[in-house]
Please model this.
Amino acid sequence: MGLEFPNPVGVAPGLDKNGDYFEALGDLGFGFVEIGTITPRPQPGNPKPRVFRLTGAQAMINRLGFNNKGVDHLVRRVKRHRFRGVLGINIGKNFDTPIERAADDYLLCLEKVYAYADYVTVNISSPNTENLRDLQGEDQLNQLLDKLSRRRSELADEHDRRVPMALKVAPDLDHESIRSIAQVVSHHRMDAVIATNTTIGRAGVEGMKYADEAGGLSGAPLKPIADKVLADLRTLLPSDIALIGVGGITTGQDAVDKLALGADLVQFYTGMVYRGPELVTECLQAIANHGAA
Ligand SMILES: Cc1cc2nc3c(=O)[nH]c(=O)nc-3n(C[C@H](O)[C@H](O)[C@H](O)COP(=O)(O)O)c2cc1C
Model:
């Protein structure tokens, strides 16, 4: 991605949707923090309750629906900051923007955050915004990334800085879909792919309290599914496109596994809920030991 990371362990987006706490998160030892998902206009998200803990499985189900204070708020927060790690900004569309006009929302967010982001993530993989994941289809993705990469070139000239762009994908994709995403990503010279968002599947939590709640499942049960997509992408993508592995990291070994499958960086969210900041140290230690072995 052309960036220097203090360490490869990051905060996954959703934990600090508005850019309100990323400096404090950085102080916990993370090498990078990805804030967002942010949308052009503020929106409340879905009615509560909308986040559920499946404690026995170290998992969560959420259907937040991109609740956020809007891109202008986030920009005010990131304009001046003291965070020394890498700051990613994850962008999305408002729930009431028609899917045919989705590109307008992504373009507007890209323009507004461009000057302040170390990298920008295009999130087309949340299960909680209607039809969003359809943007992963070959034709739609091609059109979206075409517009975004053209605009990025113009912004790079204006700002004299090429900000890397990442695409965040869902885990619920078959091999053919992953192959077509890899082709489109390479064609448009994206810098990274982030695998994965939450799953609409319920493997590993069947019969548990809250398992039938609508939303995306994250945490330990997601790991095998996310790992498979990650491994697939590593074989399909050229080596100069970075991979960020996310989904189900709840131990240091889980982080090492993702790096072994070809991830250049890792992130977690649900692990932070169950393990707290100690998981950051554990991941860094496990990665260091693995490197030394
Ligand atoms: C409560 C919650 C909110 C989330 N919000 C976002 C979001 O706004 N944007 C996004 O790209 N991913 C979001 N995610 C997905 C996470 O970034 C991550 O991809 C997923 O949870 C898998 O990682 P984990 O098992 O470590 O949690 C959210 C996850 C959770 C649990």
